[in-house]
Each structure stands twice: as C-alpha cells, then as structure tokens.
Amino acid sequence: MTMFGLVAQAEQNVAKVGAGRYRCRYHLLPPVGWMNDPNGLCFRKGTYHVFFQYAPQSAEGAGIHCWGHYASPDLLTWKYCGAAICPDTPDDADGAYSGSAVAEGDRLSLYYTGNVKHKDKPYDYISDGRESNTILLRSENGYTFGKKQVLLRTADYPAEFTRHIRDPKVQKTDGGYTMVLGGRLKGDRGAVLVYGSADGEKFSLREVISGREKFGYMWECPDLFTLGGAQFLCVSPQGVPHEKYKFQCTYSSGYFSGDACAENFHEWDTGFDFYAPQTFFDGSRRILFGWAGMPDVPYDNQPAVSEGWQHSLTLPRELVNKGGKLYQMPVREIERLRGEEIPLSQDCGCYELQLDDVAPGTKIVLSEALEIAFGQDCVFRFLSDAGRGRTERRADVRVHSARIYMDVSLCEIYLNGGEKVFTSKLYPQKNTVSLSGSCKAVRHVMNGYTINY
Ligand code: FRU
C-alpha cells in the first residue's frame, strides 16, 4: 500500500475519534492521531490553507509523519483535504517535517524538511546520522502536488552547524525570495540561517544569525516578517534556562524585536501548551497559528489520547505592532461563533468569557479546575487533576481585562487586549465558572467550526 493509502486507512476511524468527549469544537484538530506544528499557512485565491504536522497512525506521534491539510474560505468553515505530503522518498524517509508555503497566482509552493535518520549503526543524531533535506513541492491547483525537488542537502549547509537544520520559512520579497532555516551550531547554540534566491529554487546563504551570547542550544521553526515598519525574527528556542516569569515551559517560542539577543526576546505565550507557531499575511493582516501543544513535558493528555487523538492548533490570531511589542487577538471572524449569553453557573464547555474592570485581588475559577488570580501579576493554578500534572504559571502583567475562550479541553486567555496570552489544555468534569472579587463578567456560548471530513 502507498503511504497515502496507509494514511487513508488510519482515517477510516475518523467518525469514532470525532465522537470523543474531549474533542474541541472551534479549534483545528487532527482528524485522527497526532498533530503538531502548523505548516504552509497561506491565503491563495480566496482560500486559507492550513497544513500541519500529522501522525495519523498514533495519538502519541508514532508511525508515518506527514502533512495534513485543511482549507477554508472564511477561517470558520473547514474542509479536510487529506494528506498533502507523505514521507515516501529516500530524501524524507523519516518524516515530512515542518515548512511553509508561498502562494503566487495559481501556483502554491511548499517548502519543507525531509528528515532522514541513518540506522546502520548507533548515532547521536545530533552531530551525525541525520540528514535534513530542504525540499520543494509545487501545485497549480492548491490541492495536488507535483514531484519533490531537493533544493539543499546536508553537504550544502555551512560546516559550523550540527545535523540539526530544519523548518524552512520562505517568503516572496522584492528582489526574489528569502528563506530562514532553524539550526543548532556546533557547540550547541541556536541559530537561524538566512538564504536568498531569485527564482525560489536556487538558494544561497546570506547570513547566520545567532546573537551575541548563547540563547538556547537549538532554534526551531523560524519566521521573519515586517509589521508596522519593524522587522521581527521569530524562533522556538530549546534549552533556555527557566525564570519566574519567562521560559517556564520545557521549550519556548517568541520573537526578537531588534537584534537577536535575550533582552529583545518576547515570548508569545505564558501557558503550558504553546509551541512552534507560524505566521502569514492574508493581504490585509498578519495571522499567527500556534501548535497548542509542547514536546517533552512532565504532564499529559491521556483523556484525549484514549479517544485516539492528541493536540490542536490555536485560534488564528491577528498580530498588531504596538511600539515594538506584538499584541495577539483572535481574528474578528471568531466573534461570529458567539451564541447566546449564559450565566457563570451554567455547565457549558464551549464559551467565551469577557472580563472588564478587573480589580486587583479578583479570582476566577474556570471549569472548577483552573484558578486565575489577578494581582500585581497574574497567576494560573490548576486546582484539580483536570490539569493532568500541569501546575502553575505566572504572567508579569497587571490585568485590566481578559477575553477567555474555553473549548472543551483547551483554553486561550487573552489579557489586556492581547498584551499577554495563556494557552493550556485541561480535562474538566464540569464547566461552570466562579468569581470572587470585583470585575464585570459576560459569558456567551461559543458555536463550533463547521468541518467536513
Ligand atoms: C517543532 C518540530 C520541528 C520539526 C517538527 C517535526 O515542534 O520539532 O522543528 O520540523 O516539529 O514534527
């Protein structure tokens, strides 16, 4: 059977998995199995395309690692279009890893990393034993793809790098195309490789960016864009030491405003489950999707795994540059999912909760599981095992307002109009809300996306 056949075979389970109690209703999930990074985000001829890292054969990420594909005219009604890239050549044998899309007229070009692991002897897969091929696939209709073309192989990357180089993010620029790749330098320092190209196929190295001092050992999933007159380099660094308000998770992700140094790095999210985001421009706004998940964590998602799936993407978030800081709020389309107003005491697992005029000392408990204490800073604390081992996170912000989106087993909390965001999974038994202290609270039911599998 072909790889595409094996994916389709795993997807025969889609109705059973789709009936899971903890499935989110207004977030993109794997049809079956495992999802990680958003890939290939773009807007092509009136359609949004969202590809994603997908392991359909296992909710824990084993088996085939391919790209899944959703398409939508409005970010609310989605069609699942099947696997777009499968690891079916020697150049990507161990996974079609993360990458990006460029949409130009009819043409859609996907750039990704073909991961190859040699198995003839034991390797550390850092300094040896691994290939990371940068591969291009083109489509003229947005849905079916032509022949894979390897643009860069291990021997083409600079010698100062280990074998960890991946996640091409390509964009059209005035003079041609720019590509950023994430990497790990020898000596275990994270870095970004910046390439340029006139035709989108022949790329040459322009620059390696790694900052003055070491900032983590590996930078995954880079992104580079200009917004509000400033340029932002985004990375997902691994190995940055934990601090009280920063880098609280196993790995982090954020952007440098200005030079690539620790002082200029701003994390996207303070929650337990956010990593490896990607952005794109849809003609009027820059939109970010993150992976609502995190690798190598001391907590789990067993309730979802036992339903045959794990992880999701975040809501699409519009980015706005406010004085060099990027604010994030869900795109305005999400407001169209808002249903009737309901009291805090009603048991309802899909809701939006708007808090205003939040006085210090106010506390709110979501779904009898997650307490949020607003004071000089903001503390998120799990009160029950609905957190599956998640404990506490802190955001260094005095909160005046919050927009909370709860979607069955995922919440996204936007503080002060998107100044800080907290994303976390939770598996509650009951979905009431309680409040002490002083603030204005308005709660609405949220309706789900329409998704056709
Ligand atoms: C980030 C990441 C990427 C890689 C992909 C593989 O979560 O590790 O660097 O391309 O996941 O699924």
TrEMBL record:
Enzyme Commission number(s) of this protein: 3.2.1.26
Pfam family, any one: Glyco_hydro_32N
Keywords: Glycosidase, Hydrolase
Domain named Glycosyl hydrolase family 32 N-terminal: residues: 27-330
Keyword RNA-binding in annotation: no
SMART domains reported in the protein's UniProt record: Glyco_32
Superkingdom of this protein's organism: Bacteria
Sample GO molecular function, one term: beta-fructofuranosidase activity
Signal peptide: none
GO process terms (BP): carbohydrate metabolic process
Family classification: Belongs to the glycosyl hydrolase 32 family.
The protein's name: beta-fructofuranosidase
